[in-house]
Amino acid sequence: MADGFAFEVLHTDGAARAGLIRMPRGTVRTPAFMPVGTQGALKGVHWHEVRAAGADIVLGNTYHLMLRPGAERIAALGGLHRFINWPHPILTDSGGFQVMSLAELRKVDENGVIFRSHLDGAVVELTPERAIEIQRLLDADIAMQLDECLELPAQGAEIARATALSLRWAERCKRAFEGAPPGRALFGIVQGGDDARLRHESARALVDMGFDGYAIGGLAVGETQAVMLAMVDATVPHLPAQRPRYLMGVGTPEDLLAAVARGVDMFDCVLPTRNGRHGLAFTRFGAINLKNARHAGDPRPLDAESRCPAARDFSRAYLHHLVKANEALGGMLLSVVNLFYYQDLMAGMRDAIAAGNLAGFAGMTREGWARGDLPAP
Amino acid sequence: MADGFAFEVLHTDGAARAGLIRMPRGTVRTPAFMPVGTQGALKGVHWHEVRAAGADIVLGNTYHLMLRPGAERIAALGGLHRFINWPHPILTDSGGFQVMSLAELRKVDENGVIFRSHLDGAVVELTPERAIEIQRLLDADIAMQLDECLELPAQGAEIARATALSLRWAERCKRAFEGAPPGRALFGIVQGGDDARLRHESARALVDMGFDGYAIGGLAVGETQAVMLAMVDATVPHLPAQRPRYLMGVGTPEDLLAAVARGVDMFDCVLPTRNGRHGLAFTRFGAINLKNARHAGDPRPLDAESRCPAARDFSRAYLHHLVKANEALGGMLLSVVNLFYYQDLMAGMRDAIAAGNLAGFAGMTREGWARGDLPAP
Questions:
Q1: Among B122, B262, B301, B328, fewest CB within 10 Å belongs to which?
Q2: Which of A72, A323, A327 to mutate to test the interface with B (most CBs of B within 10 A)?
Q3: Is the ipTM of this complex over 0.90?
């Protein structure tokens, strides 16, 4: 539809796809990595740096924003884009995941979840209808259904119950989303824990309802990478080719390589900024721990050939010093380095898929990581 | 001298002067405000933002850098400019002030000061000769003599003793500085506590020795603004017109207006970043506390007419949210706002001095502060 939400697959390479999600606020090149602006900000990173790194879309956390400053307040201020001064697409999660991980005294029933805010203890209710309402108030370009997300491992019966509940909530979310402005999208979330049969059932049921895109949720919650990838494999074949697929909360650079090869189009993760704050840089030489004393006298930049100014303009010795001295600038620079690296990895995969060479690109990338960091100067 | 250090007074307006300090690494427009990069970084601010704000010169702290990562290390890495990636002029203090305020178990005698590092308890000696050596290793454009800095109030005899000792250290620093590369400057520091007679004597003795510039030290250490300005008044008339005058560790915007009118050319202070981290913005409407609930729903920027993007591009509601949510971006944005405001205040004073209208500019600026913030929307 004109001025609408549209996903176009431009190239395929095995199960992998490269494409474009067109939305009124901008176009997202897929496979896409979405940096996470939890409370309306990436930790230690300016919005113009997120854009310079190459992000087409970012993620906002409904749970955090509904508690502070509040969805109605953000709506009164013109929506989340204007509030954070990011005019490009934004995906918001439904709040479900963080209710499970952060809130106190939560109680899930058919209607929704009641919990105490981790900020002030206030009792808050989140239903499928309210989750959609909040995301409409935020004016998210892509909204997510409310789901119940379990930690793994979990009991089979418990997983089945939560998966079925999430499907009923998906229907209510879809109904609540009717009448959204043109170009706004709603994604369903496949659940099913580590049970391939449940994943299959969940995917089929969601596809029958019909969503603008499909997420694979309830992973990156403590399971091994093998389980995570097995669940991706159990799900992707049951999702329609013409809709984007989003693997929530994933992951490491290796996770991204593996999941794109399996047909995933979208990712989000806090690792670039969290690891940056802790002194860890993602590079084509693998992960580099700047706390390590071997960097203390090293005049070389992290990567002289990087597109990222922070990776080129400062010595490893300086970055080491900043990290050791707990200077905020250390985490700020390394977070930017990591955001650039993640975006460059996605761009490399997009180009490789277009060239029919994703396996070659992935092999070269993994070889670079395995070779490890530059030898001492 | 060619390729040397030169100060040129371009305009005077009463006691105030506007001029240029030319150094091999760049020219500093005076009156100048020097942001403080304590441990080789401003807290929460990128170096390119310091430059964009308009800083011609920054300050590095010898005490911090000698302890971590060490002056010899920085020298091996090509000096402080290359280490922090700031190719423009840098002034370093002598370490004396922070030995007094931060170090443990310090012992001052004729030779120098012995103290325990606040980082690891290591015993470190700082003599006038070592202070100069460290600043040469850092390759500071402007080095400061070692002095003994007391907290005020202090006993008269104690002030007299420290002032006399600082003068003997000044001579030793001057001798140690001989043979510095062309264009590097050494400033003496006028001491004397809150005693105008001692200030006069200290200034005269330093001028007799002959320095490239003169600092007024030992202030902004607990005394009132009236005492601070009285000491400036007691000192400036005894300093040569053709040398820059630097009031160390000062101050608030009001302090800067008052001291420039009294003939001071250079300042340094951590207030722009420290207050920014604490949610306080300096603006032409006065200081604005973003923690205040009145900003929570305010869609207006801090100052739509500011030259600073951070003051224009984000709503007060967003800044309030970031500060309340302890998001690092809040302090980062407000620190940049404050650095721009300080530099714009200096630029405004320079222009006003050139136009012979400093009193008018100062009056208008104070009126703006007194009117206070914009009325509620």
A1: B122
A2: A327
A3: yes
